[in-house]
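Throughout our pipeline, every protein is held as a single compact record rather than as scattered files. Nothing more is needed to write down the fold, since each code stands for a local backbone conformation. For reference, a complete record is included directly beneath this paragraph.
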Amino acid sequence: METESEPYVRLATLRQLHQVVTDLNTARSLADTLQSVADGIVAGLGYELACVNLVRPDGDLVVAAFAGDSAAEALITGRVGSRASWERRLSMGEEWGELRFIPHTEGWVLLEDDVPQWYTEGPEPRFEGEWHPQDRLYAPMYASGSGRELLGVISVDKPRNGRRPGAWGQEALQMYASQSAIAISNARLRANMQRALVRLEREQQALRASEESFRQAFEYAPSGMAIAEMGGDQHGRLLRTNDALCRLLGRPASAMRRYSFADLVHPDDVGTLLRTSAEGGRAELRLGRRDGSYVWVSLRNSVVADTTDGPRFLLTHVEDIEERKRHELQLAHRASHDALTGLPNNAELRARLSARLCENPGLSGYGSGGYGDRYADGPRYADGEGYAEADRYADADGYPDAYGRGHGPRQGHGHGYGDDGYGGEAPAPAHGYGPGFDFDLDAPGGSYDHHVHALAPDSEHDDGTKGLAVLFCDLDGFKSINDRFGHNTGDAVLIEVARRLTTAVRDGDTVARLGGDEFVVLADGLGAEDAADLAVRLRNAIIPQIRVDGRAVRVGASFGIGWAVCGMSVEEVLQSADQRMYIEKRSRAKIHRRAG
């Protein structure tokens, strides 16, 4: 199974990749874009050297950008390699998806071709998968569309970890090459559009020629283009769309003229569209297709004038980014969800819980059972029968037994915070604040004027207070199943328990797996009795027999109910629920012994 630290490593890599891709899209020229591609490899993907070989109009490839070594950059920048030599290299390399890898044991046959490269020596690899200085890894860049026109090739060398990239590294490099191709195509398109706009402003005598040049750039652009009205009653109405945009949205040009982008945008992205300025604005949002589905696009706006003193129009460039968004969603989901059960993981749970808490306690106090008395049950000391907190251990794989008796050091919950939760059940907003927040920096003291404080209901008197219940669940008898029948059976039990918990809660609730056999349920808007009833329902959902490989097994569950209260930290909330769970587990153990 996936280690607990791996999602955080992947999340850090995703953030670095997101930053370097952002830098690609902010470059002002083709030269800046090419250099940003090389710099992004070194800054974000863990290689010491990167080279961008760009296809020239005659088909050969020229070294257009280099990063990582000034001496090597001076040696090969501007040198040209023939198309035939490059095609030979790409055809003989090992296929890693779109990537091509040529190990040092085979690269000697390329020493005599005319592809510019740097030469370094090194010892034979000491272990399998170690990078050799003469290993070669190439990432081809293709233009979008069915023709798969080769735009260039990225060469990388010297991974900082000294190893050939694994599946995660290969996928990151491949996705980066795809985004680099889009950025290069966009830079070329922007250059063409800027030249056309300059001609429109400065060359009144060549207006017709400029208009024809613009028309061709508009009509035959590989990505979507649209012209819309600016100002007046029909502001934003689409006047003209190119074939690429019509194909993207599955709508004919005649039908497109009845709409504006505000009519086509996904309801959740209307605010994003409205926040995009008319001139120089950029946004990533979803547009509706004719079949009712939505596609992720990147919009870039600029303003053009029909004549020097004539009306102005809005020119919008629409780039299909569905594939990139799909990869981002997959990567983010892997980083924030448990690999075995598919539930939100520890980091995602903490992020969602943190989104509902502020640093200041509620104005009405914490309430009975809240922050003020969350330790009212007393410290978890051992009773006469030895069920101490210090004795809650797990087996070698971190699965505690029914009452937590020692079988090796227990794995901790870990700390950290999730990303924006793409693909989650109820993702926390990307700005880090949950429902009910309206962060006003201009308010006195920067207060959360509209934040609804989380309070704990009074367990003694039902005063109608509803709160965010935190139910900490630890399975009883799981370790004996794991030890007796093996980890495959144990994993099957955890998957089924996760399914039963998810089925038993409401659509807005969160079921997360902390690790081992521990789960946490977040259920908002509950009173004290509601939370107790929910714990009973969840326990009853878990205890029926589970059939695995023809055998029937059974686990129980102990629940501790805590409350998320503003003024508490996430750690305090989880510890409070964990304490109550342990007290219940110990009490039930005593009852079973007396009954026996």
User: Anything to note?
Assistant: Residues 6-186 form a domain with the Beta-Lactamase fold (CATH 3.30.450.40). Residues 363-449 have pLDDT under 50 and may be disordered.
